[in-house]
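Hey, I was hoping to borrow your eyes for a little while. I'm sending you its amino acid sequence along with the backbone structure tokens. Take your time with it, there's no hurry, and the full record follows here.
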Amino acid sequence: MNKRIIFSLTISTALIIASIPAQATPISVGMGASWTDSPYKGYGAVYYPLPHIAFSNEVFFINNFTAGAYVYSDDNQKVSLGVSYLPLEFKTKDTDNAQMKQLNKRRSTLLAEARYTLSTGFGNFATSIGADILNESNSVLINASYAYVFSGDKWAIEPRVGINWANDKNNDYYYGVSHSESVRSGLAYHDAKSSFTPYVSLVGSYALTQNFGAYLGARVDKLTGDVKNSPMIANSTVPSIFAGITYSF
């Protein structure tokens, strides 16, 4: 079956690839692949290509699925405003579950996002808030994370722990079951409220040559609350693995 769903749970992990290269350069591009075990019933394992592009100067930045500008920056703090692609979606044609096929399609969207990062000798802290600007899901998403980079001449390893908060509109759009959908599908009616999703990740990179590098990473998200209890969900633990090659200019 053709399963092209892309989860923001995995994509957000990929966004940190550019932050831990073995060699810091202003521009890098690349291509990789990712595997994730979809939490939706009838989806199963999902594979998809993972493009990579990163650029940053004193004013503007592109970090894969996010682009924006720095409104404040010094040696260890940055405040940025930008737009981020939220690729979470649900397509009825991509599920094998007969009941799930009776539900409405859920679309991806764009977020207006504000982000703050703090780099210290004890690690890197980041927090962000994003809001749907296409009126698809009316999502409001808040993230907080802590990471520490271990590095050598050609390698870097970054363990990260974090937590995401999603408002009730986001959760009800992507995980709720309306009364009409319940009648059609036989799934229980579900009005999803806000929830937290803690996660852990580990990403490593290695400089193969002066320009080429490779990365490998894994991440596990734990769905909780009304997302975990949604009749659309088959599993609340969502593992992801990804790898790729980058070229730095």
